[in-house]
């Protein structure tokens, strides 16, 4: 069964790179550029994994991660937080993010982290 990944990233170029990378790996994608768009799309279908940027036009990815991990419908879904701010790594672990990716990122590293989390979830 194809795994679905929801990417919340407001930078169109970064969103495109992640989309291209993950589609080539056979993942199904949901893409959002804002928190409100994410919430709207979650009503339709839940993903198998979230990738969330920290700095967003209408919210903070750390707070979104905390909300997802506190919600009974989404707390089991792995969350990867992405940021260019080194302080975000510590903050993301405090809200139970499953992983953290520092920007700029290595594409192979991103794939490895995603695959590891999805394998762990399946086990």
For this entry, give a set of tags:
5 helices; 7 strands; two-stranded antiparallel sheet; 123 residues; Rossmann fold; single chain; 23% strand; 5-stranded parallel β-sheet; alpha/beta
Q: Mind explaining what this structure looks like?
A:
The protein has 123 residues and is α/β, with parallel strands linked by helices. It has one domain (4-121): Rossmann fold. It is 45% helix and 23% strand. It is built from five helices and seven strands; from the N terminus they run βαβαβββαβαβα. It has helices at residues 12-24, 35-42, 61-70, 87-94, 107-122, and strands at 4-8, 28-32, 49-53, 55-56, 59-60, 79-83, 99-102. The longest helix has 16 residues, at 107-122. The two termini are 15 Å apart. The mean pLDDT is 91. Keywords: Phosphoprotein. Pfam families: Response_reg. This is Response regulator receiver domain-containing protein. One of its GO terms (biological process) is phosphorelay signal transduction system.
């Amino acid at each position: 069964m194809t795994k679905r990944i929801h990417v919340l990233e407001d930078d169109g170029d970064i969103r495109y790179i992640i989309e291209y990378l993950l589609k080539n790996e056979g993942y199904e994608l949901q893409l959002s550029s804002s928190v409100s768009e994410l919430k709207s799309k979650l009503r339709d279908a839940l993903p198998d994994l979230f990738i969330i940027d920290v700095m967003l036009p209408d919210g903070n990815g750390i707070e979104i991660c905390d909300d997802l991990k506190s919600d009974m419908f989404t707390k089991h879904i792995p969350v990867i937080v992405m940021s260019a701010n080194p302080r975000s790594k510590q903050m993301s672990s405090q809200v139970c993010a499953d992983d953290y990716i520092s920007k700029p990122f290595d594409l192979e590293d991103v794939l490895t982290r995603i695959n590891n989390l999805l394998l762990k979830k399946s086990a």
